[in-house]
Amino acid sequence: MPKTEYGTVKAVPERLLQRPGRFMIGQYVTVHGDVISHVNISHVMVEDGGEYSCVAENRAGKTAHSARLNIYGLPYIRLIPKVTAVAGHTLYLKCPVAGYPIEEIHWERGGRELPEDMRQKVQSDGTLEIKEVQKSLDSGVYTCWARNKQGHSARRSGEVAVIVPPKLNPFHSSILSLNVGDRASITCSVIKGDIPLTITWRKDGRPIDPTQRMSVTQVDQYNSILLIENLSADHTGNYSCVVRNTAAETEGHQSLLVNGNCIVPDRHSLPPNIEPFSFQDGLAEGMRTRTVCGVSKGDPPLTLKWLKDGDPLLSTLLGANVSTLDQYSSLLNIPSLSAAHSGDYTCVASNPAAEVKFTASLQVKGK
C-alpha cells in the first residue's frame, strides 16, 4: 500500500487489486502538495467491473470516494463473502455485479423474493437494506441475481450472520454508600448478548489490581461479582463492569462511597443488611434474567432463602435456579421466562440477631 508523508491512499476492492500482473497502483505528490493515486488495469475482463473506492487516511482521520467501473459484457457476480451484522443496526448488502448494461438486480432468501416486509428495501443500485436487524429473522443465506435486456443472468449467494451485542442489567443505584469495615459486592449481569463474552472490572478507569484487596468471581458466562470483604477509605471510587463480544462493548458504572469508621456497640449481634436488587425492565417471554441477593452487613452464620409472592420459591415448578455464591450471596437465575414468572420475589436473610427481607417485582411481557 503506497505511503507518503501526507498519509496513505489505497484503492479497493483490495481482493482484486492484490492480483499480480494486471492491477497496478501508483501515486505521486504534486508541486502543490496534492497526493494523486491511480490504478491501472491491463487486459480488462468483464469481472473487473464493479465499484471501486479510493481511501485516503492520515493521523487525523480518513475519507473515501467510490465510483463504478462499467465494462460491457454479460452479467457476472463475484463471490459474496460472509457478512456479520449487529442486531438492532441497519444492514446494507451490496450485490457485487459486473457486466454492462444491467437491466435489473433482485434479492432472494429461502426461495422468496425480497423485500417481504417493511424493514427490507432494495435500492436503485441493487443494494439490499435491512433495518433493525434481528438474529432470528435475518440470519441465513441471501442470493442476488442480475439480468440484462437479452435475458442473460447471473446469480450468487452469501451468508449473513447476526450477532447480538451485550446488554447489562442496570445497577440498582448509581451510588453505593457503606462504612469502613463493611462488605461490598457488586454484581455485573449480562441479560442479552451472544457468547463468547468477556467480563472485566475497572476502578477509576483502570483494571482491578490484586493489591487493592478485592476479588472477582466469575459465576458463569453471564455473571461476575466484585467482592470487597473489608472496606477501607481507599476503596471509594467509580467501578465499571466492561462486557464485550465480537459485536460490541458496553459497560455499567457503580460509584462506591466508603464513610468513616462505624462504631458497632456489640459486634456479635449485628443483624444482616441486604443490598437492594432489582429486575430489569422490558423482559419478555423466552428471555433470561438473573439477580443476586447480597448481604453487606451481618454476622454469620447466615441463612438465605427466596420467596415468590410470599411463598417459598418452588424451583422445580417454575424452572428457576437458586445457587449459593458464598456465605453472603445467593443467585436467582431464570433461564427462560414465561408469564408465570411475573410476581414479587423476596430474599430473606437471617442470623441469630434478626431476619430481614428485601422484595423486587418481576414483570414478564407476553410475546
Summarize the structure in short:
The chain has 367 residues and is mostly beta strands.
Keywords:
367 residues; mainly beta; immunoglobulin domain; cell-cell adhesion mediator activity; 4 domains; Ig_I-set; 5-stranded mixed sheet; Immunoglobulin-like; Ig-like domain-containing protein; single chain
Number of strands: 33
Determine the CATH topology of the largest domain: Immunoglobulin-like
Mean pLDDT: 87
Question: Termini, distance in Å?
Answer: 52 Å
**Overall number of structural domains:** 4
* Strand order, sheet with most strands: 8-16-15-11-12
Helix-residue proportion: under 10%
C-alpha geometry: elongated
Gyration radius, in Å = 29 Å
- Which structural class matches the secondary elements? mainly beta
CATH top level of the largest domain is Mainly Beta
Pfam families: I-set, Ig_3
GO molecular function: cell-cell adhesion mediator activity
Domain Ig-like: 75-161, 166-259, 272-363
Protein name: Ig-like domain-containing protein
Describe this structure in words.
This protein is mainly β. It is 3% helix and 53% strand. It folds into four domains: 10-69, no CATH class; 73-163, Immunoglobulin-like (Sandwich); 167-264, Immunoglobulin-like; 268-366, Immunoglobulins (Immunoglobulin-like), CATH 2.60.40.10. The strands form nine sheets. A five-stranded mixed beta sheet has the order 8-16-15-11-12. It has a five-stranded mixed beta sheet with strand order 18-25-24-20-21, with no helix packed on it. Keywords: Immunoglobulin domain. One of its GO terms (molecular function) is cell-cell adhesion mediator activity.
